[in-house]
Amino acid sequence: MSWIKISNNVQEISSLNQRWLTGSGDPVSNSHMIQEIKEYIREGGKVFVGTDSQIVSDGCIFATAICLHKVSGKKYATYFYNRIKEKENYRGNLRFRIMKEVQKSIDVSLEILDVCPNADIEIHVDIGKTSRSHTRTFVDSVRGWLTGVGFGCKIKPNSWASSAVADHHTKRFKTA
């Protein structure tokens, strides 16, 4: 993804074949989304970013969510998401799929920092440490990667932006 300046000097998150939607599935202009994120950050809010994926018969769906939740003293909860379907299905390559989820979250988070350098961003990753979790061996490397890039990191059961919000949109087959 890259940043594009538009005529009124608001920066726009842009990427080929991507569009951002509100939590209810309504298209949202990138300039409106950026303005809402900026206002939320000005009020002291922390931004939560998470990506999840779902293998489908003809590829893999990735959904990334930007969640704005709670500003001290105010009730605030909204989010934006995008969905991308890739032809590669990553079946049998869980590590690569998880790392791709993390990279997508990092990319969006870095773009938010370009517009709001003082943003407090926490990345949520849909991995866990329990003995039942197939992703437990990825926890240290993912946490180190995110810390090294400068972001906070939450994993299951505290990774709601990826394991609940983004997850919900990987399972909805309404085209995004």
Would you write up a description of this structure?
- It is built from four helices and eight strands.
- The protein has one domain (2-170): Nucleotidyltransferase, domain 5 (2-Layer Sandwich).
- It has helices at residues 30-42, 94-115, 139-149, 160-170; strands at residues 2-5, 11-14, 21-22, 46-56, 59-71, 74-86, 120-125, 152-154.
- A six-stranded mixed beta sheet has the order 3-6-5-4-7-8. It has a two-stranded antiparallel ribbon with strand order 1-2.
- 32% of the residues are buried.
- Residues 1-17 have low confidence and may be disordered.
- Helix content is 32%, strand content 32%.
- By secondary structure, it is α/β, with parallel strands linked by helices.
Name some characteristics of this structure.
Nucleotidyltransferase, domain 5, six-stranded mixed β-sheet, 4 helices, alpha/beta, globular, 176 residues, 8 strands
Number of helices: 4
Q: Calculate the mean pLDDT score and round it.
A: 87
Strand order of the largest sheet: 3-6-5-4-7-8
The biggest beta sheet, please? Answer: 6 strands, mixed
Please provide the count of β strands.
Answer: 8
SS class: alpha/beta
* Rg estimate, integer Å: 16 Å
SSE topology string: EEEHEEEHEHEH
Helix content: 25-40%
CATH class: Alpha Beta
Number of domains: 1
CATH topology: Nucleotidyltransferase, domain 5
CATH architecture annotation name: 2-Layer Sandwich
List unreliable stretches of 5+ residues: 1-17
- Global outline: globular
Strand content: 25-35%
Distance between the termini: 17 Å
